[in-house]
Design brief:
The protein has helices spanning about 1-20, 35-40, 45-55, 65-75, and strands at about 25-30, 85-90. Strands 1-2 form a two-stranded parallel ribbon. The protein has about 100 residues and is mainly alpha-helical. The chain has a single domain (about 1-85), classed as Rossmann fold, CATH 3.40.50.720.
Length: about 100
């Protein structure tokens, strides 16, 4: 979407601007996640199944799927990762 593309561009620019100070900037791009906002699109069983079929993992994401990615990027284990966009989408970007 246009909003995700804008955030990805902002993330790359921010990473260049703050990297010298040892600050990392990354973004997480979630797919269809079963949150309050996401459930609105998933109330219809046919729509929900269509989304499942579009993902390589054949399931709808859960908030916990995104939490792990965010926790990793915020950890010292990701100290040398910056300017990146991480798709947490069950492989929907592949379709």
């Amino acid at each position: 979407s246009a909003s995700k593309a804008a955030i990805m561009g902002f993330t790359r620019v921010l990473a260049q601007e703050v990297g010298e100070a040892g600050i990392t900037a990354n973004c997480v791009c979630p797919g269809i996640i079963a949150t309050e906002m996401g459930r609105t699109n998933l109330d219809d069983p046919a729509v929900s199944e269509a989304w499942r079929q579009k993902t390589a993992m054949r399931r709808i994401g859960e908030p916990e799927d995104v939490v792990g990615a965010v926790a990793f990027l915020a950890s010292d284990d990701a100290a040398f990762i910056t300017g990146q966009s991480l798709n947490v989408d069950g492989g929907i970007v592949l379709s």
